Task: structure prediction
Amino acid sequence: MEEKPEKLISDEGIRVDGRRPDELRPVKMEVGVLDKSDGSAYVEFGGTKVIAAVFGPREAHPRHLALPDRAILNCRYHMTSFSVEERKPLGMTRREVELSKVIREALETVVFLEEFPRASIDVYIEVIQADGGTRTTGLTAASLALADAGIPMADLIAAVAVGKVEGQLVLDLCDVEDKYGEADMPVAIAPRFNSIVLLQLNGRLTPEEFKKGMELAQKGIAEIYRMQRETLKKKFSSARMEA
Ligand code: CDP
Result:
């Protein structure tokens, strides 16, 4: 485990990785990175690297799980064994089962499931490298992969964590800040409706800090949403040019 640095924020207000409190890590996004799935995306926030793949809508399997009036959305969030320094169990841990559930519930708020009765839409999120914020990066990637698969959605989902580090509110925590900071709050939003689709809080914030933290998250999310739309536009406009 990485050791605690002497200071998480310098006297000049600079964080361990050189960022200002309201800065995102360098972000990379790409869609259509895999051939076998119907949609896919790769998203990187600094050292956190995630790939998402989507299959469907396809016949639900096993068939008795199919619903007569809508599709089922299956979601698996998983960390590869080489994504963290410690020895990670091979199977699904309790944490991964919980994260699969909260990510699924967030995605269900935007996907038009009722358009595909008896079908399933399967979302796989693989964390290739973890450095804080894997659930938010996973959600951001999953919504891009769903869009890449052409699945009708009310909106994309953009997500980021905010937190408190040495008394200071910061955007997009890295692993060290997550581990040694006072609070960590992942937020996911469907920006078109400004509706919050995931909100968790680990640690404590005052009501005032919570309000400021949400504003900081919204600012980051606006930037992430812009990048998501750019990424999709780039793929689909180049596909049109090839046609
Ligand atoms: O990744 P996220 O912030 O959504 O979830 P977390 O449970 O708050 O985990 C924070 C960070 O701890 C992860 O991003 C990893 O960098 C690290 N972690 C780890 O090293 N080993 C694990 N088994 C789980 C998490």
Helices lie at 94-108, 134-148, 175-180, 207-242. The pocket of cytidine-5'-diphosphate is lined by residues 84, 86, 88, 130-135, 161, 175, 178, 184, 186 (CB under 6 Å). The beta strands are 27-31, 39-45, 48-59, 72-79, 119-129, 158-165, 168-171, 183-190, 195-199, 202-203. The first strand starts at residue 27 and ends at 31.
